[in-house]
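Hi there,

I know you've been waiting on this one. I reran it after we fixed the sequence typo, so this is the corrected version. Both the input and the resulting structure follow.
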Amino acid sequence: MEGEAAERNADQTSQSSIEIKILQSRSEKVALAKAFLSPWLQFFADDPLFSTVDAYRTKEGEKNLEALLEHVLKNNDNPCVYAWDVNKNQVAGFIVQNTHAVDDVAAGTNPIKQYNWSETALRDIDKVYEFVAKIRKQFNLFSLLGVKKVLFMRYVNVAREYRGQGIMGRLVATCLSEFQKQQRGHEAILAGCSNYYVHRKCLQLGMQLLLELDYSEMDNYKKMADYQTHSKLRCMVLKCRE
């Protein structure tokens, strides 16, 4: 996770080797799946919410998460924004987006559960899923926003060796800029911020807090690293300009 000192030093860090790129088509995304794999696995290991699932850091878990990555990239028509290190030819960070529509019957599904997990792993996965589901039970996002179709920044991560270099801000800024230019009918863009520092970056870039849920409402929240800092799951929003 990006720390306070790292954030303060971000603007002083050279980023000449990092380019922000956009993948539009499914074929482009699938072709780069292997390049995304390492920071993808780091996301599930380090993200406060998903770090409560020990199985994500096992060999079997990583195999399942690799299959999930391919599923997510293959079944998503939305642009994927990523940071590319031109010197090392590797992905430095990414934001994978999903569409949610008011009549989307698949919105409540959890694709990670389709893979072969132990009973213990499934219990931990269910705890995360049930916690996130509380938002849907407590709030109707579409009624709250008065919209029918939103773009959701679902998976957000910067690879460990690149954290503290301002890359997260560049990724989020690119997503917001592309959202305002898009012609796909999305009326708002949301960011699910399970990480406090991602929340702060979204706030700095003009997104507004829509709702939040305290992690203490999840049974095993104390398994999170630094759970005092990452104390809440927050949903940030920016509506399309009229």
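Quick highlight: The first helix runs from residue 4 to 9.

Best,
R. S.
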